[in-house]
Amino acid sequence: MPSPLRPSVLAVIVSCAAAFAGSGCDNTITSSEALPPLEMASLDSNAGSWRMIVLSSPTQFAVAAPVAETSAAYAVELAAIRTAQANLTAAQRNSIAFWAGGGVLRWNQIERELVARFNLPPAPRPDGTYPVPDPENPFADPQFPFANPPYAARAYSYVAVAQYEALKTAWYWKYQFHRRSPARIDGGIRALMPVGDLPAYPSEDAVLSGVTVEMLKVLFPAAVAEITQRAAEQRNAALWSGKAAASDIAAGLALGKAVAATLIARAGADGMRNAVGNAAQWQALADSAVARGEIPWISQESPPRPPMLPNFGLLQAWLMTSAEVTTERPPAPPSTSSAQMRQELSEVRQTVDHLTRDQLAIAYKWNDGAGTYTPPGHWNDVAAEYVRDARMSEVRAARAFALLNMAMHDAAVGCWGVKYTYFNPRPVQLDPGITTVIGLPNFPAYPSGHSTFSAAAAMVLSYLFPQAAPDFDAMKDEASISRLYGAIHYRSDIERGMEHGARIGGYAVRFAQQDGAN
Amino acid sequence: MKASSVRVLLVIVPLAASARAQTIDDGLLMPSGVLGTGSFYAHESWSQYWEGTLKRDNGNIGTLTTQSLTWVAGYGVTDRLSVMALLPYVWTRASQGTLQGMHGVQDFTLAAKYRLLSTPFTERGTLRAIVWTRASQGTLQGMHGVQDFTLAAKYRLLSTPFTERGTLHAMVVGAAGIPASNYVPDFLPLSIGLASRRFSGRFTLNFQAYAGWFVTGSAAYTWRTKVTLDRPAYYTNGQLYLSNQVAMPNVVDYTVTAGYEHGRLCIPISLSQQRTEGGGDIRRQDMPFVSNRMDWVRVDGRVIYTLPAPRELSIRLGASRIVSGRNVGQATTLTSGLFYTFHL
Lengths: 518, 344
Description:
Chain A is built from 19 helices and no strands. By secondary structure, chain A is mainly alpha-helical. The relative contact order of chain B is 0.21.
């Protein structure tokens, strides 16, 4: 016997089901930024004269003159492109569409993915100790590297600087030879990605593929197969699209690899080798804090994990001398026994015990903890959209990422130096009643790395994209305060970190003001 | 890793009715015009979990405890159609480490159960149960030769005429669940749920013998909508996603229950399995993620007892244990509850 209730009940069920369909039975997620084909706003034809960072000048690496556009050898190259274009597969067209978005932006995306993949700490051994990732055995457990924030900041910066140096060199030689793109020379060759008036020799796509693949192989050796394949795809896309001929690509690839070798040599001697330290040194850090009358930092992990990269603060900075790294440091944090520290500790507890949902969302938005692309990756993510929208030439895009990532690398060096000078405990160590709503980083509190990274990044991005400066400033404030909401930092950590980061970012801005690119 | 959320969401929150067990996946309906309501408390804990397929413990979690208090109600719209609703409040906490527990109202679920078929088994035939055993031996000698020798034995365990034995029920259930608060799904294993909207279709066959025993088989497919995170990017299943939207793989579950009912007592025992149709594994030493492939097999025992007075009140006790899993905790769950029926 049907009851009068029944139709309404069914209506509720049906409407619940309809709510479903409306909100996402389509389960596809776009995995990366949409990058339209890059139509450069400017060719930046004078980029060969922009100031170098590591190289002495663009002529440090000579590029031999290409054969003439009218030569028989070059005619063979053009014929090969025509043949390739007549037989393009769907996969090849996808590859062209992917790389047409811009090599610097694409490689930045790829690198963010690599960082997220490798940003996992080693699991403890059964005896409670931790293995150290080994670059000589990168495929083992633990995998190499552990791409934590300092490691990532350094990786992003090396790739960006290497690309920038290589592209400035390429631009110099492009405007020595003025060889046109195949699609501009041969009416039988279509331009399947934007082919502007930029001289094709040496190919900027090949330069990028060569320099990036060599850097990433050193930084993420376990991803070698994938990196190599991506780089080959980029060169092929340049060829298939009618943008570059085989000789443009060969010259670019060789140039990119040569520049990478210089940067790899620098990386081998920048201090990273010794950044992990050893047990005696870790103990000395604690003893030193005790000798100063302070409570030393203790790992809150179980089993206790050695502190993250205690000697990262000794690394060679990009834009600061080691004396400048020291002089820019903030003053000492409040003593662990001071009234101010008690007050700040109480603020952390009050904050986390009364978090709003919006504050919680901010804590998660900027968490960028283990398994993510890290805070420097987040700022690259932010920057990528502005670089894309500005339709920057490859060399100008490389400049933007180099300035941003040099600033964040130097922020990591500066911040880590301070962290291990004071070896200051986290809030949960001083008040075990505090619990965190995000993972607790395994290194000393003062000052906040997020705040230092973010202030340095916002400073550089505000210089590059002044119309968006208020947005970067707001993001910097939000990223920084998110650490108080997460209950992992005191207010002093955040405020001194932001000030420190802004001073460090200033070095990159002053470099940019005088680099000839304005 | 998060067994609790998945379980509360999808399957089990129990619903006793008029002196008998009733859950979303059992074979029983509320009688027409009967309204039952009650609440159940569940205490679930685990200290080991499967990181992908690797079983481990974690000193930064210790024992993860999830408690829930669930309000349930069921109503017999007709003798063939019941509706039920569930709303849990969930608390989580970790015994070690610094991570903060979470609590809040989880997901509201509304389900309708419709009986397709109810057939008394009277002089219908004979049920036979047969066991096969088999021995085989093979040889491999180049290109030719004697292949396999097979020896088989067949033994009849049971041959019972179905005469006035019981009744076979078949029913379909549609259930929809929707997060009832803006909780955070991105803090597993401490999140209270997965924050996905869900719709599931279920088919259940139940044989209720007049002698008191019963068996039930039930299978469901659950569609899940995307989940929105508070962050702009995440890495899962071998890929970085520059999005705050997470695609959720759908879920299949199966349950087989056998039990006995006598007088005021009903004792069902279940074996159930959940299989997630995709999703990534937890990476080595990573946190679990909302769209992980969460699979498990669980055994579950319950006792439902209807009081002599008042006869409208029943109490329920239960225990379950995950016996194998992937990306979930090896949870042990104890439940207790009270259920009261009104004859409207």
